[in-house]
Design a protein that fits this description.
Layout: E1 5-9, H1 13-24, E2 29-33, H2 36-46, E3 50-54, H3 62-71, E4 77-82, H4 87-95, E5 100-103, H5 108-123, E6 133-136, E7 139-142, E8 147-150, E9 153-155, H6 159-169, E10 176-177, H7 178-184, H8 190-208, E11 218-221, E12 225-228
Parallel strand pairs: 1-2, 1-3, 3-4, 4-5
Antiparallel strand pairs: 6-7, 7-8, 8-9, 10-12, 11-12
Length: 234
C-alpha cells in the first residue's frame, strides 16, 4: 500500500512539529500549514488522503475550512482537533463533515490508530476522477494535453508555467503559498526557488494578458503567495 499523505493544518508550532515528526516516523508523509486559508488552498490543490485540522486557526477557523472542503467534494479523511471538547463543538464539527473530533492535547498513538482506521476507506476505494479541464469564460486549461487557450488563441507555456497555472486555477480566489508552488515545480534550493518562481509567474502573466479592468489575472499577495482571479475572461 502506498504511503498515506497527511496535511496538518495547525498554527501552534510545537504541536505542528510534534504531529509531523510522529506521523512521518510512523508510516505517513506529513506536511504542515499554519493558516486556515492557506491550508484550504493546499488541501484543494493537493487532495491529501487525510487532513488533521485544528479548530482555532488564523485566517479561517477549522469549522469553515471543513465545510468548504466538503462543499468542494473533498472525499478524504478529516480529523478535527480542538481544546474545546464540549458536545456542541463536537456535534458541529461532525455535522460539517469531519470524520472524527479529538480533544487536545491528543495522544499521538490514539490519533494514529484513528487515522489508520479511517484511511482504510480512502485507500481501498478508487480515487475520484480529477477534472481534466478547467474553464473560466474564454480561458480553457486542459491537463491531459497541457494546452491553454484563450478563445481561439493557443498560449505557448513552458511546463513550469503550465504547472503553476493549473495549481492556481484549481483553487480560484484562494492564496496558494510560495512554498507549495515551488515544491510543485521542484524548484531548489530555497533562494533560487524564490527567484525562479517570480520569473515563472511574470512570464505566465504576460502570456495570459490583462483582466479587462487592467488588473493581473494572477495576483501577488505579499508574504503569502499567489491567487488566480477567475473573472475577466470574455
Amino acid at each position: 500500500m502506498r504511503i498515506p499523505r497527511v496535511l496538518i493544518i495547525e498554527d501552534t508550532p510545537v504541536t505542528a512539529w510534534m504531529l509531523q515528526k510522529y506521523l512521518s516516523n510512523n508510516g505517513f508523509h506529513a506536511t504542515v500549514e499554519g493558516d486556515g486559508r492557506r491550508g484550504l488552498a493546499v488541501a484543494q490543490a493537493d487532495r491529501p488522503d487525510a487532513i488533521i485540522l485544528d479548530n482555532n486557526l488564523p485566517g479561517m477557523d477549522g469549522f469553515e475550512v471543513c465545510a468548504k472542503l466538503r462543499s468542494a467534494q473533498y472525499s478524504g479523511v478529516i480529523v478535527m482537533l480542538s481544546a474545546r471538547d464540549d458536545d456542541r463543538n463536537r456535534i458541529s464539527g461532525l455535522e460539517l463533515g469531519a470524520d472524527d473530533y479529538l480533544p487536545k492535547p491528543v495522544k499521538l498513538a490514539l490519533l494514529k490508530a484513528h487515522l489508520v482506521a479511517l484511511l482504510r476507506r480512502v485507500l481501498t476505494t478508487a480515487p475520484a476522477e480529477s477534472p481534466d479541464e478547467l474553464r473560466y469564460g474564454s480561458l480553457a486549461i486542459k491537463q491531459s494535453s497541457r494546452e491553454v487557450r484563450d478563445g481561439e488563441r493557443l498560449l505557448a507555456l513552458t511546463d513550469k508555467e503550465f504547472d503553476v497555472l493549473w495549481l492556481l486555477a484549481k483553487s480560484p480566489g484562494l492564496i496558494v503559498s510560495r512554498h507549495t508552488l515551488s515544491e510543485s515545480i521542484r524548484l531548489m534550493p530555497h533562494l533560487q526557488a524564490d527567484r525562479s518562481l517570480d520569473m515563472t509567474v511574470s512570464r505566465l502573466r504576460r502570456s495570459l494578458g490583462k483582466h479587462h479592468s487592467g488588473r493581473e489575472h494572477i495576483k501577488s499577495v505579499r508574504g503569502k503567495g499567489y491567487l488566480f482571479n477567475e473573472s475577466g475572461w470574455d
